[in-house]
Amino acid sequence: MQTTNPKKVFVTRALPDEWLAPLRQVALVDVFTTAERPIDRSTLLQSVAGVDGIVSMLTDRMDDEVFEAAGTNLRVVANMAVGYDNIDLAAAAAREIVVTNTPDVLTEATADLAFGLILTTARRITEAERYLRSRQWKTWSPMLLTGVDVYGKTLGIVGLGRIGMAVARRAAGFGMHILYHNRQRNEDGESALGCHYRDLDDLLREADFVVVLVPASQGAKPMFSFREFSLMKRTAVFINVARGSLVNEEALVAALKTRRIYAAGLDVYGVEPVQPDHPLLELDNVVLLPHIGSASMDTRRRMAELAILNCRSVIEGLPPKTPVRF
Fold first, then answer.
1. At what angle do helices 17-24 and 297-315 cross, to 10 degrees?
2. What superfamily in CATH does domain 7-103+297-315 come from?
3. CA end-to-end span of the chain, whole Å?
4. Are the C-beta atoms of residues 262 and 236 closer than 8 Å to each other?
5. CATH topology of domain 107-288
6. Residue 160 CB: number of other CB atoms within 10 A?
7. What is the DSSP secondary structure assignment for residue 323, as one 8-state letter?
8. Domain limits, the chain
């Protein structure tokens, strides 16, 4: 590691030491040592002073205030996430700060979770486990905890990108009829997996399961609100593993309460963590997960390795592997 004017990097969340070793070879690395809660704003602003690089998480708001606090040495913000809506790209561009993310490495893990939510929600698996654990199960009954079938049903994927394609591959194994909606047609999905393009309204009308996999845009209005839920089948299941800001949660709660749709499975929310008084917590036809789409040990390790590689490359004057284009 350099001994004269060494590079400095701040990591906003505790990571295993062995994952950070390649970064420590080229820089002085300071780490916010609490893994289970996000760094508070004042500590963040103090900690980034004078750094050359920041390894950030999707819970960290990276904006001009942070960049100003960091100073003129800051060259890179390496986000340990595929999304980057937590980063003010315009402010970064104005200061010539490189922004990177971690695409590809979390594709399969997130697709596993998305399909897991389809199965869990359709077959009421978590509800059934709670029923058993609370010792309510007294006898077999022909209508006990009946759900809806998955095999052979119609899946609507909103956002047929890398993760959407991975979900479609899983759906093909369940004999599902696959519809998708994108800003642009996905010819690979159509030819290789037999996916059929629909505009959004038609997809919502036809699909038995709707899976949301589009990226969120800063400041954009929710993609799914009262109108969109009114178009869906009453037997439809809504799955969101993308971003909570894509959904008007008031509209979703209303659709679930009135049984306008059958059920929902969520891994993301408008405000995270979910507050104790959130109305979603009172509903029995929604499966709620604490944003664990990429939470496998192998995937989180690969995400950290890629973020660290990106950060190291930039502070050494090399191009990053996965820059965000803006």
1. 10
2. NAD(P)-binding Rossmann-like Domain (3.40.50.720)
3. 32
4. yes
5. Rossmann fold (3.40.50)
6. 26
7. B
8. 7-103+297-315, 107-288
**Count of CA atoms in the C-beta half-sphere (13 A) of 51:** 31
Query: Maximum distance among all alpha carbons in the chain?
Result: 75
Residues with Cβ within 8 Å of 112's Cβ and at least 6 positions away in sequence, in order, are: 170, 296
* Nearest in space to 261 (alpha carbons), one of 282, 244, 239, 238: 238
List, by residue number, the catalytic residues.
243, 272, 291
The one-character DSSP state at 322 is S
Residue for token pair 């001994």? 3
Contact 234, 260 (CB under 8 A): yes
Question: pLDDT tens string for the chain (326 positions)?
Answer: 444 679 999 999 999 999 999 999 999 999 998 767 889 999 999 999 999 999 999 999 999 999 999 999 999 999 999 999 999 999 999 999 999 999 999 999 999 999 999 999 999 999 999 999 999 999 999 999 999 999 999 999 999 999 999 999 999 999 999 999 999 999 999 999 999 999 999 999 999 999 999 987 766 789 999 999 999 999 999 999 999 999 999 999 999 999 999 999 999 999 999 999 999 999 999 999 999 999 999 999 999 999 999 999 999 999 999 999 97
